[in-house]
Amino acid sequence: MADLDQSGRVSQRVKVWRGPSLGWSEIEVQPTVTLSQAGIFAVPLGTHTILCAVTGIVIDLPDINVWCNSPQFYPGANYENSIWIKDISGLVSLASPLIITPFGTQAIDGLAQNWQIIQARGEIRLYPRSPLSLGWISG
Three-state SS across the chain? Predict the structure, then answer.
């Protein structure tokens, strides 16, 4: 996989048969974004993996209801509906964490507060909980 259009998104597309009503649709498989500048990053629909190449990043999670209820034929939707966030810089620490912010009052593991990655090369995997009102669960 390569970032041919220099957009920062590296992805692979496949055609998926959605049945006789919807037919074939092309979707991204585990679309990846690499962040190389500090600042706030709002996770777009369909993003699966976020690689953080610098510190000073705040990641704003999408509304879990919109994330999970987007149409299955949405071109950017992925198979798993999870979000993986990883420090690839090796510079993350307690003094310089990656901050993950849930949407509104939504929660991660039952806590409606910001999460932090504080270990170099650390990662978090977020999966929707059922019912969606419970928010995300880390894995």
Answer: CCCCCCCCEEEEEEEEECCCCCCEEEEEEEEEEEECCCEEEECCCCCCEEEECCCCEEEECCCHHHHHHCCCCCCCCCCCCCEEEEECCCCCCCCCCEEEECCCCCCECCECCCEEECCCCCEEEEEECCCHHHCEEEC
**CATH class of this structure's domain 9-138:** mainly beta
Q: Where are the domains of the chain?
A: 9-138
Give the confidence band of 133 by pLDDT, cuts at 50, 70, 90.
Answer: confident
Q: What is the pLDDT of residue 3?
A: 59
Tokens 């798993």 -> residue: 80
- Which of 116, 114, 119, 55 shows the shortest CA–CA distance to 93? 119
Contact in structure between 75 and 26 (CB atoms under 8 Å): yes
> For the whole model, what pTM was predicted?
0.76
